[in-house]
Amino acid sequence: MRLLLTTSKGMEDIAKGEVENLLSGLGVPFRVEEKPLGVEGRVLAEVGEAFYTDEKGRKRELSVSTYLNERSRLLHRVIVEIASERFEGIGGDEPDLALRRIEEFVSELPVERYVKVSEPFAVRSFRKGEHKITSLDISKKVGKAIFERLERFGRPKVNLDHPAVIFRAELIGDVFFLGIDTTGDSSLHKRPWRVYDHPAHLKASIANALIELARPDGGSFVDPFCGSGTIPIELALRSYEGRILGLEKYRKHLRGAEMNALSAGVMGRIEFLLGDATRLSEYVESVDFAVSNLPYGLKIGRKSMIPGLYMDFFGELAKVLEKRGVFITTEKRAIEEAITENGFEIKHHRLIGHGGLMVHTYIIE
Ligand code: SAM
């Protein structure tokens, strides 16, 4: 089976590592590839059949897609691949031609192997790049091709609101994928624990990528701009045994973070503090790891405050940080100045896609 796995751009290697780790636990042969056909934000896993023994000693098939949906912290979707194809030059094709190429391709695929004809289905599409067609055009054409193919075997049903099976069609540049979306309509990064919705919250998948980059070893950990608590909550959910702190300047967000932690069942594991990160040393004498999604001045506050805020914060961080920090922001110049002026070294930099922006991510020591 080939599984097409989606995540944020720029963290495919970290997601690949997580998937390899999870699949190793199943004892099946597998191969994981980052950016299949050069597509960013995608990971492909080829996995052999997995089995488990039930309570009566019978050998049962284990659904690898369900296992990944349940266990992954970095993936957004788990899609069982039906086919993938490169359509050279599709970006320049007139709409009729582009859609005909897609329809002809899909109509030859044995979709009947993936769905019972009696099961209501829907097609959801995703399109990225320069094309003369929309994702809605793709959904309609792919839906028509699947319907006509299934009609050979019975009476297919379409249900766009409550489908039993979701086909996912993606056209990214000139690469087309079709698969069965086993995740459903809500992406895995939308965590069920989120009862307080901060206006600038971090995707939980990215929070986990930052935690992976920080490699916390059981030592104390702080998110000094914790907002709704995404980073400390996700760390606590990984059964982290060290001390976890979340600092936030505004009471409303801190209350929200506490509500989220309560909902996630980790309230007892995190110390939430109302306070100012530019006075960090007043709250903690020393801390091993600091990981944070810094204010960008876009949704909250003013952009002109950012250089001063970063300079003051990293000055404080220099007094308390023992091991490693990981920070994410759009404000490249301000963070790099604050990092170097305060005696830290940038050990790693990468860009991660978040909310339509490519965001700068740093590991510092
Ligand atoms: N990662 C968070 C989440 O997922 O909800 C969002 C963090 S948001 C980008 C930055 C947060 O920093 C905001 O909640 C803002 O109120 C807080 N903040 C701004 N200035 C602060 C300061 N001086 N000290 C502590 N928190 C501050």
Automatic annotation (TrEMBL):
GO CC term, one of those recorded: cytoplasm
Q: Tell me which PANTHER family the record gives.
A: THUMP DOMAIN-CONTAINING, TRNA (GUANINE(6)-N2)-METHYLTRANSFERASE THUMP3
**Name used for this protein in its record:** Predicted N6-adenine-specific DNA methylase
Annotated localization: Cytoplasm
> Organism source for this protein?
Thermococcus camini
Key words, A-Z: Cytoplasm, Methyltransferase, RNA-binding, S-adenosyl-L-methionine, Transferase, tRNA processing
Which example biological process does GO assign this protein? tRNA methylation
What lineage does UniProt assign to this protein's organism?
Archaea, Methanobacteriati, Methanobacteriota, Thermococci, Thermococcales
Q: Which InterPro entries match?
A: RlmKL-like_Mtase, RlmKL-like_Mtase_CS, SAM-dependent_MTases_sf, THUMP_dom, Trm14-like
Using the record's annotation, list all stretches that form the THUMP domain. Answer: 69-182
Q: Single GO molecular-function term?
A: tRNA (guanine) methyltransferase activity
